Structure formats: C-alpha cells, structure tokens
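Q: I'm writing up a methods section and want to include an example of the input and output format. Could you take the sequence below and give the corresponding predicted structure tokens, formatted cleanly so I can copy it straight into the document?
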Amino acid sequence: MSEIGIVLIVGLFVLLLLGVPIAFTLGLLTAIGVWMADYSPMILVQRLLAGSTVTSLLAIPGFILAGDLMTAGGLSRRLVRIASTCFGHFTGGLSMSTVAAGTFFGAISGSAPATTAAVGSIMIKELEQRGYSRGYGAALSTSIGPLGQMIPPSIPMIIWGVLAEESISKLFLAGIIPGLLAAAGFCLVSVLYARRLNIPREKRATLRELGGALRDGIWALLAPVVILGGIYGGIFTPTEAAIVGALYSLCIGVFVYKDLTWASLPGVLVSSMRTTAIIMFIIVVAYGFAWVIASEQIPTQISEALLGITSNPLLLLLLLNLMLLVLGAVMDTVSAMVILSGVLIAVGAQIGLDPIQLGAMVVINFAVGMVTPPLGYSLFVASTISGLSVERVTRYLWPFLLVLIAVVALVAYVPAVTLFLPGLLG
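A: Here is the clean output for your methods example:
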C-alpha cells in the first residue's frame, strides 16, 4: 500500500477513536490526501460537488420530510393504535404491536432512527404500564429501527443504488423479505419474554373497537400503498415517490387528522432540513474521500488481500459480513457505504455475488449497526426517549441482535431471500 494509503487508513481509525465527528474526519483526511498526492484543489472541489448532484439523492430529503410530517400529523400514532387493536390480545401482544407499528412506519419513513423515535415515543411508556420493563421497551424500540432501512422505501438503499449504479426499485424489493423475517423474529422474542414474566394478555378488541381504529387510521394505512404502489405501478420514480409521500402526509396531517397545524409546520421543516443537511454533508465529504482512496487503488488492494486469505466463496462471505458488522457498529452508515463501495463491489464481483444481493447485504449489515453498541444511532435515540443509559438498554438488546444476525446470515447464504421479489420485477 502507498504512503498516502497508509496515512489515510491509519488516520481514519485514529480520528474515529479520538471521537472526531465522521464528517470532519473525512474532510480533513481528504484534504491531506489531496495535498500529499499534489492534486489540483479544483479537482477536489469538482469531486465534492459531484457527490451532491446525483438526481436520485433528491429522494432522501423527501422521505425524511414525509416521516417527520407523519409523526407530527398523527399518522404514526394511528398506526400504533391499529397494531395494538389487532395484536394486543395475543401473548406478548403489546410487544408484537410495537413490532407491527415499526413495520408499518418503516414502510413510510425509510430511516432507522425515525422509526425508533416515532414508535418508541409512544410505546415505551405503554409497555412499562402493562408489566414490561422500561429497558425492554427501549431495546425493542431500538431493534425495530432497522426495519425502516430494510422495508422500502429505504434511504440507505437509495444511496447504495446511486453508488453501485443499480436499480433502486429492485433494491427496495430485495429488502422486503429480510424485513418481514426480522419482524417475525422480534414477535417470537416478544412471546417468549411475555411467557417468562407471565405478562397477562390484553382484552381482545371488539369488532366495534377494531372498526373504529381502522376508520381512524385508514389514511395512515394508505400511505405505504400510495408510495410503493406508485413506484411499482410505474406511476412515478422513487425520487418522485418521496415528494408524493411528503405531500400526502402534509395533506392528511393538516386537512384530515388536523393534528398538524400551519403554526407547527416550520418546526417540522427545520427538523427535516437539519437531518438532510447532516446526511448530505457526510455524503459530500465521503465522496471526496472515496475518490482519493480510489485514486490510490486502495479498494483494489484490500479486495486482493481478502481474496488472498482464502478462495472459498463461503468463507469470503463470512469475512465480508463480519467486516461489515464491525464497521457498522463504529461508523456512520452513509460514509461507510461511500468509502467501501469500491471494495465491496470488487469483492462481490470476484466471488460471483449478485449485485442486488450484495446491495441488500451491505444495507442490512449497516442497519444492524444502527442498533449495535457503541455507536448505534437507534440505540441513542431509544436511550434518550426512555431516559435510560445506553448500557441499561443494551442489557435487553441481545435477543433482538441475535435475530438480526440470523437475518444477515440468510441474506448472505440464501440468495432467494433477496432475489426472489426483484426477479419478479424482471
């Protein structure tokens, strides 16, 4: 590896261990790499701008705004009510309702932290009042966050589609079965936990109560139908779907449910703009860093090193997934995908991995990183909402993490899990 490559890789780990924010870390190392390689500063500026001008990235602010509007407009609260009415009478019913609500909201927001925040802010207190520990409620809310990145629309799937130049619609479909498998695993954990603590079942909802919940929440249930139906019905692209989702959420929140007022709208917009700015800033500097390491042929060298360890595709897949899980636990998802995309695409091609399966595997591994200590975003969100320390939440997290790791293994070693639905698209 070249001197520049060593400086960049070692500098990355040192700065991250020192707690320097990832965007500033990448920006500083990119500037150092450009200076050491004696590149023209104008080339760096061009590359940074290129990282922010990809049309498909326009979907990101749209889905972020849609998720925030749904939370402020009462759509997420009504989804939770429907889930509770449908599943509350089962063993572990309220916990299963939390999983169902997270699945519904994940099909709208595309973000792990947003899913955790929207559902956890309602369900953690409800779970505690019904006999569950507060730590369990926080851990469950943390765990459902990745469903927002597996089940379409998914912001990381959009980013990977741009990086790998793959169909975003097919990547969306590739995440559906893994997301549903994870949700089913969480429901199994819910049942086992409720039985162990002898948590009583809720009273079965009457048909009148069920009908009332469905009538009240029908517009919330239609949101994923409008967004995903429009994409796969060929009515609009994923980017256009993000804008449609935001407009739909605005209209329902203001004119139908009336939980969202014009006075509160500026606060929602500012929150969405702040989140979008953070993500886009990371993408821009990560693009610059990725360009520098690509210029030094570091991805090729790393892929050759991995292939030099073993030629067995099964072992290579294991090494690749272990690497992704570790990096997902300590790095930001967006920057990690941009930095590693060249390496991962090269290794995937060498072992004959389908590009759509590879994209789903990368995104799902990093989705697991969202809940993994020490830097899981969803973990911090749930900790803040519940008022518990990250360490306390982590005690209850391990069964859910085992479910997610099992899903990662299925995605890696059973291609049909991710390729069956995209194959139907053609």
